[in-house]
């Protein structure tokens, strides 16, 4: 699963919104993307043998 492309697809599907809630939503999506990337790194580290 490529989380970076998923998050960018979500952002591309919704028009830009300059209101406070639009900016908050963009920030939340960015935070979610970073979180999912971090989870992928941790999962990869656990998948590899010692």
Structural features, described:
The protein has one domain. Helices cover 78% and strands 0% of the residues. With 50 residues, it is mainly alpha-helical. Helix 1 (3-13) packs antiparallel against helix 2 (20-47).
Number of domains: 1
Main β-sheet description? none
What share of residues are in beta strands? under 5%
Can you tell me the overall shape? rod-shaped
Average pLDDT value? 81
User: How far is the first residue's CA from the last residue's CA?
Assistant: 24 Å
Poorly predicted ranges (pLDDT <50, ≥5 residues)?
A: none
Tell how many strands the DSSP assignment holds: 0
| Percent helix range | over 70%
User: How big is the Rg?
Assistant: 14 Å
What are the secondary-structure elements, in order, as H or E? HH
Descriptors:
50 residues; mainly alpha; 2 helices; 78% helix; rod-shaped
Brief characterization of the structure:
This protein has helices at 3-13, 20-47. It is mostly helical. Helix 1 (3-13) packs antiparallel against helix 2 (20-47).
What's the helix and strand layout?
Elements: H1 3-13, H2 20-47
Helix pairs in contact: 1-2
């Amino acid at each position: 699963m490529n989380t970076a492309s998923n998050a960018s697809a979500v952002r591309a599907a919704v028009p830009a919104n300059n209101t406070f809630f639009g900016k908050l939503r963009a920030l939340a999506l960015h935070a979610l993307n970073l979180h999912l990337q971090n989870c992928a790194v941790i999962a990869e580290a656990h998948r590899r043998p010692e």
